[in-house]
TrEMBL record:
This is ATP-dependent DNA helicase RecG. The lineage of its organism: Bacteria, Pseudomonadati, Bacteroidota, Bacteroidia, Bacteroidales. Keywords: ATP-binding, Helicase, Hydrolase, Nucleotide-binding. The keyword Hydrolase applies. It comes from Phocaeicola sartorii. The keyword Membrane does not apply. PANTHER family: GLPR-RELATED TRANSCRIPTIONAL REPRESSOR (PTHR30595), SCHLAFEN ALBA-2 DOMAIN-CONTAINING PROTEIN (PTHR30595:SF6).
Length: 249
């Protein structure tokens, strides 16, 4: 945050200034939290007037506690929020930093009514029907395999995937493909999909069961094998099993 002469840059699509915390009119600021989460993220700065001039807060800790509890009680789903205390020339401020959400739409809930907001310029406005539909589609496009994990990609290798890529495409492998394939995030974390493709896959459910029966009925198995590995090898094991027991000629 850049402050010059006790003044912050004017309100914009990602900034909202609040001179004080409105405890009896929570909608006045919760709609901004909803809007930031539904759009590109942003921050509310408490202790600054509409002109961006610092006035400070008397009790930022109490305000932070109230904000945290109110967000959890009135927004669904609960967005990812950071509460950041700021001290500037004897003034206490509070930044409520809202991350752009992936589980859109984020609704403000009151008296049985759910309302979603988005940022338009420097305002938080109620979604129209088209905007709400777009948010719903954005939220439902999220799949399990695209979810990030807390596992560092640097601690794992994708040698088997890279070698298979070269064999199948006759092109050179580039580690940049990992992010474009959705296997790692931009900040170097594995996604759930990435966990299934690393060389030393430890996902318990990443298994394949191959069984050969005597006929059309599952009575006595002639042979059965179980493999637990990454998806590339599981595909190979499954294909090899079928080829080994497929009659030709």
């Amino acid at each position: 945050m850049q402050i010059h002469n006790n003044t912050l840059i004017a309100e914009c699509s990602t900034y909202d200034f609040k001179e004080m915390l409105e405890r009896k009119k929570v909608k006045s600021w919760l709609k901004s939290v909803s809007a930031f989460a539904n759009t590109d993220g942003g921050s509310l700065f408490y202790g600054m007037n509409d002109d961006g001039v610092i006035v400070g807060l008397e009790n930022p800790q109490a305000d932070a506690d109230f904000i945290s509890e109110t967000i959890k009680a009135r927004l669904d789903p609960v967005p990812e929020v950071q509460l950041i205390p700021i001290e500037h020339e004897g003034h206490s401020l509070l930044e409520v930093k809202v991350k752009a959400g992936m589980l859109t739409p984020y609704y403000y809930y009151q008296d049985g009514t759910r309302t979603a907001y988005v940022r338009v310029g420097n305002e938080s406005v109620e979604c129209n029907s088209q905007q709400l539909l777009s948010l719903v589609l954005k939220g439902t496009h999220m799949t399990w395999d695209s979810l990030p994990t807390q596992v560092d990609a640097s601690k794992h290798s994708f040698i088997i995937l890279a070698n298979t890529f070269r064999e199948q495409t006759h092109q050179e492998w580039n580690d940049k493909y990992l992010e474009s394939f959705g296997l790692i995030t931009s900040d170097g974390k594995l996604t759930n999909a990435g966990l299934l493709f690393v060389d030393n896959c430890t996902v318990f459910q990443s298994r394949i069961f191959c069984t050969r029966w005597t006929g059309l009925y599952k009575d006595d198995a002639i042979s059965s094998v179980e493999h637990r590995d990454n998806l590339v090898l599981l595909l190979k094991y499954g294909m090899d099993f079928i080829k080994n027991y497929t009659m030709s000629g």
